[in-house]
Predict the structure.
Amino acid sequence: MTDAEAGRGTLAEGRARHLTLRPHRASGLARARGRAGVLLTVPALVIVLVLLVLPIGQAAYYSMTNWDGLTAQWVGPQTYLDLFESQTFWRVLENNGLLLLALPVAVFIPLVIAAMLHEHVWGWKVFRSLIFLPTAISWVVIGIVAMQVFAANGSVNGLLGALGLKSLEINFLGFEYSALGAVAATFIWSMVGTNTIIFLTGMSTIDPAIYEAARLDGAGRVRTFRHITLPLLKRYFQFGFVITTITAFTALFSLIFIMTEGGPGYGTTTLEFFVYQQAFAIGAFGTGAMVGIVLLVLIFGVNLLQMRILRVRD
Amino acid sequence: MATSVEYGDRQVAGGGAGAPASTPAASRPPRPSRWRRVRRDPGAVGIFLGLIVISGIMLYPFGFMILNSLRTETQYLSGRGFSLASWQILFGSLPVGDELLNSMLICVGAIAIILCCASAAGFAFAKLGFRGQGLLFFGIIGCMMIPVQSIIIPEYVNLANVHLINNYLAPILVYAALGLPFATFLMTVFFRGLPEELVEAALCDGMGYIGLFWRVGVRMAAPAFATIAVLQFIQIWDDLLVALLLLQEPTNRTITVGLGVLSSGHEVSVPALMAGSLVSALPAILVYLFFQRYLVSGLTMGVNR
């Protein structure tokens, strides 16, 4: 059931309560039910209010001050204008933009892998488990290994050398854009498990009879995939895209912290890392809070976009 | 609900656990032997080989960690020879045992809070109608969108003001809050699946609504609990930012933070870091291997939101 249905459900209930010929106050049983409902919701509500909603409000307020963690003086919306005029901010935002370029790859590769698994060849369940395994390990561990893989004497350069491309060998983490490329490549690798499982789950909901019919009509693997699997996967496709975008924008802190610490320069500083840097390295808590709010608005936008797309298509 | 479906398998209507296992093989169309199928379908062989290559790429870091943790620094650079010295260095430079315990404590605490609060709220949203319920539901679920970076600064200052920095309670509470919205969503969906007759029967037996939740709801929710617990365990165990900021004494660090700090300090050799990575990854991998199915069902639950 979707959220919308839930809302409708309570509306209908409310209407039903009006229609029945009852005295103004609900019966004792219904009241006890409502009371129990409120009582059971309170713990969750308190935690969410105190630990999620309150800090958002504080962040919104402090984003317009020159907060250093102890004292804060009100500055006003001017802080946002200053942020949008600072070159550093745009450099950081550029990194977020460049990470978006990795999205299609991070969705397409798992799509192909899921299609391969869906053929159910010999041992596919084992392959499925192995491909999904990296989702269990932390970004810290992934980052520590990736750092060695992309190091000057690491495996990637070794591979390039072996392929006779010695001229392409560089210290990937030593330059701004190659470092971001290394982070993006690691990110793509890390998303393979999650996205593959999402698509595979989607494919398993497709009726095998459709495939049977396509096969009888003489459609090959690629054509079946293109004309049957893909259109039926729309919903899973969008979910995969949203999850990948949100991961790219909000889950790479540890990876960046380990691999590059945001550098060289601002080469791999994304918005989420900028928040940490401003507040806990420089002590500009107000600016950090402000960047956090900008990030929140971006994520909110991505979610809204997804909901709108879903609504139009349904 | 998704928990009962094996992901990736074709979902045959009416099939599943309830079907008798003794269905005579003759009632199915005869399947050609594997080898015959392979010969008729060279594409399957290509896919099989492709999956081997992909699995190799996905497992590469594990092989890299295991192999290089068994080397000294010089052996790592030359790529020759093996030794256990790096493991000794690791246990000498990192209080591995304490950190594993800290991680475990924080995971258990946060998951306990999440399960209690989310199941109660989920049950109320699914089975107990009350005024303003829809709005409240949307409000809590909407908090799923909040990225931790947006709240961590005020959170840090608030917790410092109540002297909870370096107290295990601080990360436990923050992780609980971050996990709660999705867990509440999952529990609500789960409880909606329970038949209304069950509720009425329990009420006729003279059970109150709270008793109904406690004695009927909670008892039936084991699969949903498992999904939430596994998902949250891996998330909390693997997190760096929250624990890094809220636990700053070397003695109360989690294993992930300990490893992160060790790595950014550039004090120990690469092989010792690899050994540390293996230690920190192992519990999450074990949880994954045993509870893979629950992890997957939790992950794909979001598709229908």
